[in-house]
TrEMBL record:
Source organism (scientific name): Paenibacillus terricola
InterPro entries: Rce1/LyrA-like_dom
Domain of life from the UniProt record: Bacteria
Protein name: CPBP family intramembrane metalloprotease
TM region(s), chain numbering: 7-28, 48-69, 97-118, 138-157, 164-182, 188-205, 212-232, 244-265, 277-298, 318-336, 356-375, 387-406, 427-445, 451-467, 501-520
GO molecular function: metallopeptidase activity
Length: 541
């Protein structure tokens, strides 16, 4: 696209004209009508959807007059706003996909709105829902907020602003500026942030399908479902869900939207492998969660009532989860994928020298982690470490060490053999490591952000070890030594205080880097000359 300053200036003035008209009508309606007539003001305050329809309707009529004047004065060189917006008919398949995107967008909004750390820091989302669902009749909400307000917003921001900027600017700049302006006109900060994301989605859909109905359909589905799910009690039900379930729901919703956009722009075939990957990852996560929840219910309702003394030894219940997970995942992979989970994991022998370096690395990692989470400021900012990891560290020594013999194997099979191998079969290794760490944080730490970062750092290190030495034994040994050192530091050795703690943190950091480099250098010879893909590993299995 050729850049022309004169055309750009004209496009900007065109967009600013309509935004100015919108602002003027809003201000005049407020000062000349709302402020002067108490009965009218009270009615509008109690019926926000009617208020929106009134203002947007008046602005829309004035838009038509301005557009007509522009056409006449330019002798037809400036097209009318309805013609420019393009209300073209959509294909049935596109409409279905747009509805699915709207449903996923609704689930993403509700999941984020109810996340504990979101609710604890802002009420913007709840206020947004409460404000725009306020009306004497729910039909006002569906018609006003669910459809008419969406039509007006899309006409203004996509039909007028986007098209005006798009005549000169590249797509990325047009989408960015349109989305920032759209976010600016929202009622609160966090709703504005969310609206910027939604605007990017609307712009990309509109750019591809070239019909304003595309973004109107998504916006209407999102708004209607947000309001309907409040009436149906879904909001209250989701507020009771665990944080990691809501986080997982948000992540999966976002992934679906991304996949849907890829399908819209590129077709199904390029996206299919990633959709299959997402399905396989989703199955692993679902099986993990379902088994764990079943065992939690049994533990709370059948075991503890009969043996209340076990309440202080909840770690014993996790034995069962680890032991039952092995056959469950083994048979799922055997029956569904015709793959041997144990061969996938690569229980190959590792030489004494790499394992010795690995043990030293695990000890340095444990010192680093325990030092970091002993710093008062970090301890206060990440209380989840003490509540979750501390739970294991205060167990009886025999219970702790025997549990981690099983748990180290279980965790590495789950996160390296299954999740990491699945991810790196289709994604770059670095991305696979990071996503594995995020999944670790969601599944084991309920999405706690500091602990998810801790898990992601561990996933990157374990991923490198697993790739370099092509055996799960090296990560299992590291896992076991790591947690054993945690236990000894907490219960036997202890850590220095003050400056000594920072010295230990720096020394262990240097040790980790040196030992990682050493482990890289002593990796098997075949690994030095060729980097094998997970696809090859799975074929070998």
């Amino acid at each position: 696209m050729r850049f022309n300053v004169k055309v750009l200036a004209g496009s900007v003035l065109h967009a600013v004209l309509y935004l100015f008209v919108f602002w003027v009508i809003s201000e005049l309606h407020g000062k000349l009508v709302i402020d002067k007539f108490e009965g009218y003001r009270n009615f509008m305050n109690d019926n926000i959807p009617v208020f929106l329809c009134t203002v947007f309707g008046a602005v829309f009529l004035l838009f038509l007059l301005v557009s007509y004047a522009q056409q006449k004065l330019s002798k037809g060189r400036i097209a009318g706003i309805l013609e420019t917006a393009r209300f073209h008919k959509l294909q049935a398949a596109d409409i279905r996909l747009l509805v699915y995107i709207g449903v996923a967008g609704t689930l993403l909004f509700l999941s984020v709105m109810n996340l504990p750390f979101v609710k604890d820091n802002t009420q913007d989302f709840q206020s947004y829902v409460d404000t725009f669902s306020r009306a004497d009749s729910f039909i006002y909400v569906l018609i006003g907020v669910g459809f008419l307000a969406v039509c007006f917003e899309e006409l203004l921001f996509r039909g007028i602003l986007y098209n005006a900027l798009g005549r000169t600017l590249p797509l990325w700049a047009t989408v960015l500026i349109t989305s920032l302006v759209y976010g600016y006109f929202q009622p609160s900060f966090w709703v504005s942030v969310t609206s910027v994301f939604l605007s990017v989605l609307y712009c990309l859909v509109y750019a591809k399908l070239r019909s304003l109905w595309s973004s109107i359909i998504i916006g209407s589905v999102v708004n209607c479902l947000i309001m309907l799910t409040k009436v149906w009690g879904v909001h209250d039900a989701m507020a009771k869900l665990p944080g990691f379930v809501l986080l997982l729901s948000a992540v999966l919703s976002l992934l679906f939207i991304v996949f849907a956009l890829f399908i819209l722009w590129k077709g199904w075939q390029p996206v299919r492998p990633y959709a299959v990957l997402t399905g396989r990852i989703g199955l692993i996560v679902a099986l993990y969660y379902i088994l764990l929840q079943i065992l939690v219910v049994i533990w709370d309702n059948a075991v503890l009532p009969r043996y209340p003394g076990l309440a202080e030894h909840g770690i014993i219940g996790l034995y069962t989860n680890a032991l039952l997970s092995f056959p469950m995942f083994y048979f799922v992979y055997k029956l569904l994928y015709k793959q041997n989970m144990w061969k996938l994991a690569r229980f190959e022998a590792v030489g004494w020298k790499p394992q010795l370096l690995n043990v030293a690395l695990a000890i340095c990692m444990a010192i680093w982690v325990m030092s970091l989470f002993s710093i008062p400021q970090v301890k206060d900012a990440a209380p989840g470490f003490e509540s979750i990891v501390g739970f294991f560290l205060y167990q009886n020594a025999w219970v702790f060490f025997s549990f981690f013999v099983i748990n180290s194997v279980y965790k590495e099979v789950l996160f390296r053999a299954l999740l990491f191998n699945e991810l790196r079969s289709k994604l770059p290794v670095t991305a696979a490591m990071i996503i594995t760490g995020i999944l670790y944080g969601i599944l084991f730490f309920s999405g706690d952000l500091p602990l998810t970062l801790y898990g992601t750092a561990g996933a990157v290190i374990f991923g490198m070890l697993y790739i370099w030495h092509r055996s799960i034994w090296i990560t299992i040994v590291n896992e076991y030594v790591l947690f054993s050192t945690y236990y000894l530091i907490r219960n036997q050795i202890g850590l220095p205080e003050g400056a000594g703690l920072y010295v230990l943190l720096v020394a262990s950091s240097v040790g980790i880097l040196i030992l990682l480099y050493a482990l890289y250098r002593v990796r098997p010879q075949a690994e030095k000359t060729v980097v094998r893909s997970t696809h090859d590993v799975q074929l070998d299995a």
